[in-house]
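[[Per-residue structure]]
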Amino acid sequence: MAEQHPAPDTQLAAPGVPVIRNINWGGLSTLYVKEVRRFFKVQLQTIWAPAVSQLLLLVVFTTALGARGEVSVGGVNVPFGTFIAPGLVVMGMLNNAFANSSFSLLVGKIQGTIVDYLMPPLSTGELLAALCGGAVTRAFCVGGAVWLAMLLFLGSVMVPQHLFAVLWFGLFGSLMLAFLGVITSIWGEKFDHAAAVTNFVIAPLTLLSGTFYSVDRLSPAFQTISHFNPFFYVISGFRYGFLGVSDGYVSIWTAGGIVVAIDAVLGVVCYLLLRSGWKIKS
């Protein structure tokens, strides 16, 4: 009986010759869906609990100051509740984007399942895109839930005046925290490290970014310090999308450009760290 040979189109590629020459869309989408399903399985904790927490903050602050409390933003007086509501929405988005991206690789390192991220035929860019895509998706799910809660509580004032600004700063702000989360998960070796970054870096930058106060009311020295806080530009731009006014010294387009530039730098840092395998492969 004659020996049969496999058809030429079914032969394996030579060693070192890539089989997937372009983007591995199948692997990328699979990892992205995995990241999304992971937080959706506990959506009561990852989506709805942050919405309730942000709504409670709004209720507490508006109740403490009363209905007459107002804040001057760009020379326009707005009720305090209307002022802080957009900031609370985007603050929930930022915190949850960081929480999601800082968990994946870190839990893999702790549980010894990091090989599940390293062995599949995914490039460094595809791995980073899937991790950050899942984090941004969670951020928008939380932001949507918080926005609906604020809309029911405050009414039509929570209807965006500039939807493009809301989407722009929501997207690139969440992406900024997703990159920071990936860096944290690469550097961290236990959950205490991620908690330390959350408590001593993310929380102070978020709370001191003008969420609960107008930067215009600060002294010139503290106003200058606030403008070195990248979170300030995200919250100020996101608030502009709802109120139509901003409390920043730079234009809204300049603020948007600053956020994108920071994302680009953080993205390059994440890519280089993942590619080097620092604290992941060694």
Notes: The first strand starts at residue 70 and ends at 73. The chain has a mean pLDDT of 87.
